[in-house]
Amino acid sequence: MPSYRLDKVRELLLRELADIIPRLRDPRVGFVTVMDVEVTRDLKKATMFISVVGDDDAKREATTALTKALGHIRHEVSQRVTLRHVPEFDVVYDDTSERAARVTALIDRIAVECPPASLEETEAGTQE
After folding, report:
1. Does 128 reside within a domain?
2. Domain for residue 111, yes or no?
3. How far apart are CA 117 and CA 123, in angstroms?
4. N or C: which end of the chain has fewer CB within 10 A?
5. What is the pLDDT of residues 58-116, one digit of tens each?
6. 21 contact partners, CB below 8 Å, separation of at least 6
7. Which domain holds residue 18?
8. Mind giving me the DSSP string for 18-46?
9. pTM as predicted
């Protein structure tokens, strides 16, 4: 299957999941964001990568709640999307944003602790 079809299906599923997830009535799914969706080449399985605002317990509860609601989510997707087979979904917690924030904080800390040498200091060091 051409990759552009996979990309279109992935984007369509991402858009629909991002709309469906906040509408769930489960309070454990409060601050969940669908970050990405990966679809297998045969379109039978899709992995939903989520991000959750909160501590580890909130992340675990949200992932569990979404896993239990996958039947409802798949039904909602089937009502909204015209596909021959709606994929089976898996839920995976995505910690990319946390890792990016941690790297940014480290870079900021290094910038404060070790400011870059000024141009005058650099020129003076090369003349000696």
Report:
1. no
2. no
3. 10
4. C
5. 888 989 999 999 999 999 999 999 888 899 999 998 887 777 778 888 888 888 888 77
6. 29, 32, 34, 50, 66, 73
7. 3-95
8. HHHGGG---GGGTTEEEEEEEE-TTSSEE
9. 0.73
Task: Read off the tokens for 80.
Answer: 């909204």
**Number of separate domains in the chain:** 1
The pair of three-digit structure tokens given for residue 17, joined into one six-digit string: 């999941």
Residue 35 tokens read as: 């970050």
Residue 117: CA count within 13 A, CB half-sphere: 8
What order of strands is seen across the sheet that includes strand 32-39?
Answer: 32-39, 45-52, 88-93
120 part of a folded domain: no
CATH number where 40 lies: 3.30.300.20
CB 12 within 8 A of CB 54: no
In a domain, 85, yes or no: yes
DSSP code of 89? E
